[in-house]
Each structure stands twice: as C-alpha cells, then as structure tokens.
Amino acid sequence: MSGPPLPPPFDEIGQRCFSFYPSIANAEPNEWRLRSATWSDVQVINARTSVDVWIPRQYIGPVSETDDPVLILGLTKELEYKDGVVWPRVRRVIEMPRAANDGPYRLRPRFKDPGSPAPVVGIRLDTRENSRVGRLLIIYTGVAAVLVSLLVLVVFRDWIFSARVAAESPQNQDLGLTPSDDFDSIVQRLGPPAQDESRLGPGGTEFRALGYPKNQLTVILMGNSRGELHYIGAMGPQWHVIDTAPLNRGGDSGAILSTLPKF
C-alpha cells in the first residue's frame, strides 16, 4: 500500500534533490532529499552524508518556482545542526559596558530647597568697547566657518561625485545580454574580464564568474559543462543581483543568483 499523501508544498518536491536557503550550519553539503513529511514536522536526509534530521514545519518556507539548476526550499529562520538535532541559530551579541552615569542608578543632580534663598551672583555690565569686540569676534568666526566649508567642498567635490557615479553606474547600465550569450559573445561586447573564476554547484552544475571591476559588475554564466555555459545574470559591487535572465522551464534566474555564494 502507498503511504499517505504528502502535505503541500512537499508534494511538489517528491524525490528530487533540493537545497535549503539559508543553508543549515554544520550540515554541509547543502544537498537534501525528502524522506517524510507531516503537518507538524519534516524529515530530510543529506544526499551526501546521509545525515537524517527532523525540522519543525514552522521553520519551512516556500519552494522555488524552478529547479534549474537545483530546487530551492526556503527557511524562515537560520538553523544549525548540533548534537544530532536542528536548532535555531543564535548569534551572540557582546553587551558594551555602560557609562558610570548611565543606567538604573544614574546620578541625579541635587536640587536645593525651594524655600532657601537663591545664591547671589555678581553681575557686571559690559562696556561699549567690550560689546564692539564681541560683535567683531562673532563676525570673524562666521566668516572663517564659511571659508572652511568652501575649502572642504572644493577638495572633496570630485571624490564625492565620482564615487556616486561609480556606485550608480551598474544599476543604470544596460548590458544587453541574453541567455543565448556565451563567453565569446560576452567578451565581444564587454571586453576581456579582469577576473575569471569557476566553481561547481549542487548537482554538478558549473558556474563561471567574469569580473569587470571598472564597471563594478560580475557576469555569471551557468551550464552542465564548460562548453555549455550561458549568461544567467549579473551581480553588483556589493554582490547583489542587478540583472536576471529567463530560464527554459519558466521564471527567471533571480532565485539562483540570490543564493549563489560570492566568488
């Protein structure tokens, strides 16, 4: 007899290999298969190490729309594998020491009895000459502040504007690349890359990153072998997705690029 039907969204996964995002710490590599699922827990097994773990349903997110090159199962919280059990990952924060006059025992100023006489303060009237000197000092101080501001603006103007243009250029640049572009066509359009690195992803899929530091972008190619790599998108200077490409099975490469580690 066949077992009970799998609850959604696991009925879409079946026996296909998938990866978690974000990946489970201390349980590499990120290649898993579904063993069983209920409405409260999910049992998965690592396809490489055969590690068998249970994950509560509250930590399970949506399934990616495509499995090209690998199916992605989202997690609602970062998890780590410890002592044979999956736990929510806790990032420890070191608390900075408080100042001596800050906190629940903060010192309060002492107030005198309202009924006591106010202290006598000597008041000296400024002469006309002192008032004139004070006004001149204020004027000179204001002029000096304006001159310093202008000097700072002149010195850092080019640096500020060039940095802003460089930061905005990748988002505003039209690469004009499509999934039919390969390494040769990309080099014809953008020139030879300054960096060229490759790595294998889940399921043996190969990724190739072509770095163009002057344009502040990295072009990503993907395929089953070295001779079948084609364009799937581009990453910006902070390794965020700035361009995607449509996939053969529908959807685009956004989910793949967002989970791709930095080269």
Largest sheet, spatial ordering of strands: 9-10-11-12-13
Count of extended strands: 13
Largest sheet: 5 strands, antiparallel
Q: Alpha-carbon distance between the termini?
A: 48 Å
Strand content: 25-35%
Bulk shape: flat
Q: What order do the helices and strands follow?
A: EEEEEEEEHHEEEEEH
Task: Kindly state the percentage of residues in helix.
Answer: 10-25%
**How many helices does DSSP assign?**
3
Task: Please identify the structural class as seen in this structure.
Answer: alpha+beta
Mean pLDDT: 81
**Multimerization status:** single chain
Radius of gyration from the alpha-carbon trace, in angstroms: 31 Å
Segments where pLDDT lies below 50 for 5+ residues? Answer: 165-172
Into how many domains do the coordinates divide? Answer: 3
Summarize the entry for a quick read.
This protein is of the alpha+beta class and 263 residues long. The protein has helices at residues 128-172, 183-190, 254-258; strands at residues 18-21, 32-37, 41-46, 52-56, 60-63, 71-75, 79-82, 85-88, 195-200, 206-212, 217-223, 230-235, 241-244.
Description:
By secondary structure, the protein is an alpha+beta fold. It has 3 domains: 10-88; 134-171; 183-258, no CATH class. 22% of the residues lie in helices and 26% in strands. The strands form 4 sheets. A 5-stranded antiparallel beta sheet has the order 9-10-11-12-13. A hairpin with a 5-residue loop joins strand 3 (41-46) and strand 4. It is flat, with a radius of gyration of 31 Å. It starts with 17 loop residues before the first strand and ends in a 5-residue tail after the last helix. Residues 165-172 have low confidence and may be disordered.
